[in-house]
Design goal:
Elements (H helix, E strand, L loop, with lengths): L10 H29 L12 E4 L2 E4 L9 E6 L11 H17 L4 E6 L3 H11 L6 E3 L5 H4 L13 E7 L2 E7 L21 H6 L19
């Protein structure tokens, strides 16, 4: 256990902090156990078709997205053609992911997929300064529905999927299925929380993330 102290801390603080530290170490161990289980997943189902997406540079097939190795991470961004504006929660998530994308893509391929026309997606991306994200439109294919970035009623969903290409075949490897699992009382799905700096920082504060605050697309100050 760590044996550090901070200026003028009382004994009851150190006692409580030591208990918390033990719990944090247990959480760190559990996170790694889950990550190891995830890495050991067997091959998933082969993708049913070589989806063609629209990009700002023109059409691109799923098979053409594996430029930096055999793995592709694909986030479904909630911005359908009938939505007046993108999802504020997705926007917050992508604001953070944009900053890390240049690092992530040193080791794997990363794309963001939405169902709006590509021109509409890029217009919004430029307004947010998303210069590091590879953005694609699935307006012309069934990717969103097939991989649960959309439900049967056409509502868009914030799904994260991972695909692996091996021996000429592309297979699904992982999907953030916690999104579709029953939620604990007072919680949201939290399926992508480990990748989201916003909630991880707020969870360090005495106030926490709160029960009724959510990020907005814009703020008054």
């Amino acid at each position: 256990m760590a044996k550090i102290r901070f200026p003028n801390e009382p004994a009851n603080y150190r006692s409580a902090r030591s208990k918390l530290l033990k719990a944090e170490l247990g959480l760190r161990e559990q996170v790694e156990k889950v990550a190891a289980m995830r890495r050991k997943l067997p091959a998933g189902g082969e993708v049913p078709r070589d989806y063609v997406f629209a990009s700002e540079a023109g059409p691109v097939k799923l098979s053409q997205l594996f430029e930096r190795g055999p793995t592709l991470v694909a986030y479904s961004f909630m911005y359908g053609p009938k939505m007046k504006q993108p999802c504020p929660m997705c926007t917050s998530f992508l604001d953070g992911l944009n900053g890390n994308a240049q690092h992530i893509t040193q080791r794997t391929n990363l794309v963001v997929i939405a169902k709006s026309p590509i021109a509409r997606i890029m217009e919004y991306a430029r307004s947010r300064g998303w210069s590091n994200l590879r953005l694609l439109s699935s307006a012309g294919n069934s990717y969103n529905l097939d991989y649960h970035g959309e439900n049967a009623q056409g509502a868009q969903m914030p799904m994260m999927n991972v695909f692996v290409r091996k021996g000429g075949a592309i297979r699904h490897f992982y999907g953030s299925e916690v999104l579709y699992a029953p939620e604990e009382k007072g919680q949201n799905a939290r399926h992508n929380d480990l990748m989201w700096p916003l909630w991880n920082v707020l969870d360090l504060t005495p106030e926490g993330r709160g029960g009724d605050w959510y990020p907005k697309i814009a703020y008054a100050n």
